[in-house]
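During data preparation, a discrete fold description was generated, as reproduced here:
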Amino acid sequence: MPDTVERFLLPNDAVPKHYSLELTPDLENLVFTGKVEIDVDMHRAVNEITLHQNEIYIESSCFKSGDKTIDATDFHYSNKWHTVKIIFDSTLPTGEGILSISFKGILNGDMAGFYKSSYVDANGNKKIMASTQFESLDARRAFPCWDEPAVKATFAVTIIIPNHLTALSNMPEVSTTHLASPVGKKKIVFQRSPKMSTYLLAWAVGEFDFVQGTSKNRVTIRVFSPPGRAEQGRFALDVGIRALDFYDDFFQVPYPLPKLDMICVTEFAMGAMENWGLVTYREVDLMIDAEKASSQQKQRVAIVVAHELSHQWFGNLVTMAWWDGLWLNEGFASYMENFCVDALFPEYKIWEQYTTDAFGSAQRLDALKSSHPIIVPIKHAEEVEQVFDAISYCKGSTVVNMIAAVLGKEKFREGLQHYMRRHAYSNTETVDLWNTWSEVWGKDVAELMSNWTKKTGYPYVKVTSEKWDNSEVSITLEQNRFIADGSQSDEEVVWHIPLFFATEGNVSSEAVIMNQKTQTFVIPVSGSKPWLKINTGQKALLRVAHTNEMISRLQPAIASKHVSAIDIAALLLDAYALAKANLAPLESVVNILRCMENQDSFVVWYAISGVLNGLYILMEQLNNPEAFKTFVDFGHHYVIKALEHVGWDPKPNDSHPNKLMRSTVLGLLDTFAWSDKDVAAEAKRRFDAHFTDPSVLPSEYKSSVYRIVLQNGGVKEYEAVLRTFTETEDNSIRKYCMNTLGATRDPALRKRTLDWAVKSGEVKLQDFFYPIGSVSQNIQGAEIAWDYFKQNFQTIKAKLAKASPSLMDAVIINSVNRFCTKERADEIEKFFQANPLPSSERRINQLLENMRTSAQMLDNISKSQLASAAFWH
């Protein structure tokens, strides 16, 4: 695959240097008018200039050069490419000039471009705010511009609004002038921005409250919220101040803007957006009551804030030259979010969670043949929407994590500091980063990392021979691409794999590089029965096939907890993935599970939960009710034993990891113990009581209790959850309701949930995939959700026609990802062939491949001991 493809870019006859943009939004009629004067350099004498636009109507335009004004005579719009060609009545001179455009547009409801959001204020009144979401291709929906990341310019924004409203933009206000005409309005002028890409420009208009603080470098940081809710931004503010201080120190390039605002946008397609100096957030990712919020909620806010603020350097200060370098933004931000949160909240043990979270997501997606390289060639900018996925984010972060482990902390940091200083306010390719690290490390980083970024997939390493004695072990390793279904790759790739080893009392301090297909390593060991764990700490993105002998040697160390929690979790997850690929016996996974009953690490329980839930999905579709029942009994025993350890009630000395473990264990109850009389009774008791005493039902496991109650209940319980959604304005509580409502066993109520999500208008566009997912929590619900999707496809498609493709992806995933038979995969494939969704094509292909891989595993289960009821006793 070539490194680049011919890109579809605007002509470079004219290059913008500065935009002076004036906007007048009308929040009542949901329209806006605008004027923009663009300072341009004309490279060629032409009579036309082409810019991007989408749903913008240009009223007039002219070009000024010196004392000469040339009027536009025509505007040629391309709906396909979202451009406008402005035709002038004579040739435009080369050199400096000013392109002036008057235009108007709509405040859409698509959560893209310049759009409106609704919310209810503290007095119960419905209100409208307007804000922007420009990444990747939607600045052109707010004003005519060169909407490409490499075409950087400065911006001066002016907004005219009614006196009672507030306007924010990337930069601080310069002045506010109350206008004599039109009466009741004011003009707010903002400072000129630094040089930046159009997708980072932002503004917001509405009624807001805020809390504020100051960083060590005297940057004013504010968190804006709907009126009356400012204190819910206090936790995010604290994280924001500390994170900005951390990044200032780490990069040794101070945050360059005089202020940093973070704002809650009440309707938002993404989690957040890193606009320079005005970061926008989905409500649940910014606003929490720190006294009542769960550990997961606090951690989520900390992670999202740390992610977006790292973008102020990676992405904003230094920007990828084109969308095929998206990973330079998102991979680094996904790494830095963990790096920063670990520094700010070491008690979170965030790197342990990384093993089963981002690292696990990268492993799952990149094991598919339908995956793509980190650096994926992009011709048309619209293609980038399909690579905002776990490859750019999660695999990108694992690649950064590998580099950090190989270079060591100091060289890693030194290289980044050079990179930031050298490329500030400009654009880069991946090679620019490799070169900077190579300079400080003295070795060729590009050679080490090339296949990790340019090739699809990652390796698995199997031990082909082992020779043990009491002082060392000699192992021969072979690397191959790991593909989820166990098939062989058409292309043989040899990765440069940095390997770290753990033995009794010793962990590698430096990586050894496996850069051959087959390679032998000699590792010192000690102890009466020495053991070895390959890829300790999960530093390299790979699966490891340890031999039965190695696993046998590891088991006593696992039981005595001499093996790290990360390595125990990895051992189980690798075994499960290899078994699914038919590269290891299925029974070995259950045998490893059986020796983990007494584990008390939350990250090990994340892995256990993932494997138990994965087996549940397969076993329920096995067409062997007796085997399924005994498997559920096995899971029930496992989970109830863990419940006895963690308990229902928080303990005074609970650590953050303890709370996460309790949440994980209790989260398994609604799958394996919902019909257990004691569990059902305790869940119902807490459910009934929490309406008057919220403390009896901690947020950590509220969703699980709701599901247990709904599965055992009927209309009464369903109405209680629905009423909770209707009566609260707290989006975190609403999310619990949306994520659980479809858990009811009543098919009519499940259908009602789907109608409510799609057709009622009560569920926001940003959220309606949640209730669909709640219906699909078992195979019976999945059948209902898929039938509903097919029957209402045109309605759903129209509803999301102009919204972010990520929302359609989420709806599809929540409608079909429970299935694991070849017949169902064929049916789904035929449906989307007849009803194509180009923007979701890659995601659909990945789902289908996953489904067929699961179908293969299901077939293997039917031929294994797992299909025998006796095996689970």
